[in-house]
Amino acid sequence: LKKMNRHYSTQEYYEKVCLIRKYFPDANITTDVIVGFAEETNLQFENTKRFIEKIISILNTKVLLLIYFL
Length: 70
Known about the structure:
Strand content: under 5%
Number of helices: 2
Number of strands: 0
Largest sheet: none
């Protein structure tokens, strides 16, 4: 995340999603996920995938997934 100039951790993001869900159960939450970033390993990709699955399970909603290839 630091190389992408993100100033938060996955834990912080997770906590924010939980807080939003607690006070606004019907809120829509969107984000962009970048994979294949320079120097990303297969392990990092798998960690990202598991994290997204964790967030989706918290939201308990349908997910719109758009994939762009550059």
